[in-house]
Amino acid sequence: FRFYVVLIPHHMENYTKVRNIGKGNMGACVLVRHTQENKLYVMKLIDLSKMTSKERTASLNEARVLSSLDHPNVIKYHDSFLSRKTEHLCIVMEYAEGGDLAHKIKHAKGNPFSEAQVLDWFLQICLAVKYCHSKRLLHRDIKTQNIFLTSTGVVKLGDFGISRILQNTFDCAHTFVGTPYYLSPELVQEKPYNTQSDVWAM
């Protein structure tokens, strides 16, 4: 399972900024409009100038991983390029206009979602994770902030910044990464882990 991304020096002129969305682990996210397509996308701006070599590799990894995935429940990759002026890696992705699941839960203000709704979301998350695992890809940071919704209720798994490709199905990873609330027992105990840690996070 190998993949490559061609990073074109400058494509920024193809996009106009609409508004800021927020900040992620390694950069800011901006809602942009493609000037020719007249379509909205999310652009992740990653400042490479302040990063260590390891952090740069992680950022490039996200672009490579996204470009290799094609599933209705995974955020789609659109473009990636380097901005010469600001030394930013720009990753352009599908825009899920319904926001993330964490925001959805927060705005429910304690009112429970229906069982049917929860099962529908959970099934779609399972399909996304199953697809990633079929590609020997560990997401390693599944949480409500990284699960997005379209206006029609389609679930999209995103933010592959710390994902990891296993060489074969039975390999284990060893690096301690992820969000504390969602860590599996083997991660907490700093033991080797595999796709089952993603299942635990769900």
From TrEMBL:
Entry superkingdom: Eukaryota
Enzyme Commission identifier(s): 2.7.11.1
InterPro entries: Kinase-like_dom_sf, NEK_Ser/Thr_kinase_NIMA, Prot_kinase_dom, Protein_kinase_ATP_BS, Ser/Thr_kinase_AS
Molecular function in Gene Ontology: ATP binding; protein serine/threonine kinase activity
Coiled coil: none
Reaction catalysed by this enzyme: L-seryl-[protein] + ATP = O-phospho-L-seryl-[protein] + ADP + H(+); L-threonyl-[protein] + ATP = O-phospho-L-threonyl-[protein] + ADP + H(+)
UniProt keyword terms in alphabetical order: ATP-binding, Kinase, Nucleotide-binding, Serine/threonine-protein kinase, Transferase
Domain (Protein kinase): residue spans on this chain: 15-202
CDD domains attached to this UniProt entry: STKc_Nek
Binding of ATP, residues: 44
PANTHER family according to UniProt: CAMK FAMILY PROTEIN KINASE, SERINE_THREONINE-PROTEIN KINASE NEK1
Similarity comment: Belongs to the protein kinase superfamily.
Protein name: non-specific serine/threonine protein kinase
